[in-house]
Amino acid sequence: MTSSVEKKLAELGITLPSPKPPIANYVPAVRTGNLLFISGQVSVDGEGKMATGKLGAGVDVAAGQAAAKLCAINILAQVKAAIGDLDKVVRIVKLVGFVNATGDFTDHPKVVNGCSDFFVEALGDKGRHARSAVGVSGLPFDASVEVEAIVEIA
């Protein structure tokens, strides 16, 4: 049976990719009680192509927002792998978005909106969350964006 969240994703033209395995010594998700902590997900699509480069140095805000949306899609793929059914998501509690940016770039919140807006579009009020948007000097594999999440689950 397809979950209502997956039906909504299909309406949006989104197919969840197979979750990416960890690239180092960590696990992609940890559940404690009713909280699921999702390790940082980078801006890679289902075909393995990564959005790379620095915001403020050749990557514009719109491209950064698209990269952040990819992070959100990968977060949902990890959530589904961890709990099996996206309808068990009670709420996206907190996101921390890391933006690979030059020192003078200041639109980190606009970039991470690509992730936040997608969660609200896909999950409605369950997608509204607390959030931080942080600029960093580099990310693994020169990814443009990485986002980690805390998700409340039933």
UniProtKB/TrEMBL annotation:
Coiled coil: none annotated. InterPro entries: Endoribo_LPSP/chorism_mut-like (IPR013813), RutC-like_sf (IPR035959). It comes from Xanthobacter flavus. Residues 7-143 form the Endoribonuclease L-PSP/chorismate mutase-like domain. Pfam families: YjgF_endoribonc (PF14588). This is Enamine deaminase RidA (YjgF/YER057c/UK114 family). Signal peptide: none annotated.
